[in-house]
Design a protein that fits this description.
By secondary structure, this protein is an alpha+beta fold. It is built from 9 helices and 15 strands. A hairpin with a 2-residue loop joins strand 11 and strand 12.
Length: about 375
């Protein structure tokens, strides 16, 4: 409906088109405001498409009150993707399904293909006293780390507390074994089962939010043929100490911060191998060798190599060989090609797609 103009009114961004704010009156917080469940960074697929993406997200936010958009600037911001992704937006979503709907709407309504990084999980880091690697005197002992580029580097002594949630799952009793195995694999604690009726059970467990927010929904649907459903609520206590490791993914020696993930220390090597193998399948082949490595606790725990495209420099058109039977000439050409490939490997850029980030989201 049409709104009458009101003197003294200033609207920065409307969440609902029908809402008119009179800035002369005190603004009361509405009870029905939706709170974002998870946050992720959104980046344009093209390096120069940030302005178009920003405008498109603003327009989507007009009729999607569940979107929470934050703009940050500077190289150290959580939405900065570094040399692989470039600038982006930090966006709050209502859940993983909301993320998929958001990406599809960007594509359908604005023709923009965006990259959404894995959801961010806030960890509480408590630093311990260390003589070998002391911290600055004015540095805080405890801090909340959501952006994994700010995770303590190897050598510091610290404790990690991860956020916990209560998960309730309703599934047919015939899939009870599969559900309990999934909860165990996702590090669920205090598992309780309760029969709802003859064919349906209710499972409840205390589970790390980092395990739920990634691929838990997909795995639950797969393991129960789509018949299970679940919901979450705040846990008490909301955080628990855990033995976690951060795994960095490197491409040709460069750390790709948006591909980093955190998992239990015992699972670090196995999950790193899965991610490296998936990246080997989805990353495009280049004119140079692409080395994929995973690093955890100061050492390389997994590695893959994508071979380079190779032109036969010994053939000059058709099937005519260079230099006839002279092996010296052939060796010089091959050595020149080898040096060129090595130079490309140090300066070439590997392009990332949404499939690369899905490899980190789904690590099972």
């Amino acid at each position: 409906h049409d709104a009458l103009p009101i003197s003294g009114m200033t609207i920065v961004q409307q969440k609902e088109l029908s809402k008119v704010l009179n800035m002369a009156l005190p603004i009361m917080e509405e009870e029905g405001d939706e709170k974002s469940v998870l946050y992720a960074s959104v980046h344009p697929m093209e390096g120069d498409g940030f302005d178009d993406l920003s405008n498109a997200v603003d327009r989507l936010a007009l009729n999607d009150s569940g979107l929470e958009v934050h703009r940050t600037s500077g190289a150290a911001s959580s939405a900065d993707g570094g040399p692989f992704l470039g600038p982006g937006l930090r966006v709050g979503f209502q859940g993983l399904l909301h993320v998929e709907v958001f990406r599809q709407r960007l594509l359908d309504e604005f023709g923009l293909d965006a990259i959404v990084t894995p959801p961010k999980v806030p960890y509480i880091i408590t630093y311990l006293a260390s003589k070998s690697k002391p911290r600055a005197a004015d540095a805080p002992d405890t801090e909340v780390v959501e952006d994994l580029s700010k995770w303590p580097s190897y050598g510091y002594r610290f404790k990690v507390q991860e956020p916990m949630v209560n998960v309730r799952i309703m599934a047919p009793v015939t899939y009870a074994g599969n559900v309990m195995e999934l909860i165990k694999r996702k590090r669920g604690k205090d598992l309780n089962t309760k029969p709802i009726d003859e064919t349906t059970w209710l499972f409840s467990s205390n589970m790390p939010w980092g395990e739920v927010v990634t691929d838990f929904h997909d795995e639950l649907k797969n393991t129960t043929a789509g018949y299970a459903s679940f919901d979450i609520s705040d846990a008490d206590p909301p955080h628990q100490e855990a033995n976690l490791s951060k795994v960095d993914i490197m491409l040709n020696g460069d750390i790709v911060d948006p591909l980093a993930f955190v998992c239990h220390k015992d699972d670090a090597q196995a999950q790193a191998r899965v991610v490296c193998k998936k990246l080997h399948e989805v990353l495009p082949r280049q004119q140079f060798v692409t080395v994929i490595q995973a690093k955890a606790d100061g050492k390389i725990v997994a590695s893959e190599r994508i071979k380079a495209y190779r032109k036969n420099v010994l053939v000059t058109g058709g099937s005519k060989s260079v230099g006839g039977g002279d092996i010296t000439r052939k060796k010089k050409l091959l050595e020149k090609q080898k040096k060129g490939k090595k130079r490309q490997q140090t300066s070439g850029k590997v392009s990332l797609s949404q499939a690369a980030f899905n490899s980190v989201i789904s690590r099972s």
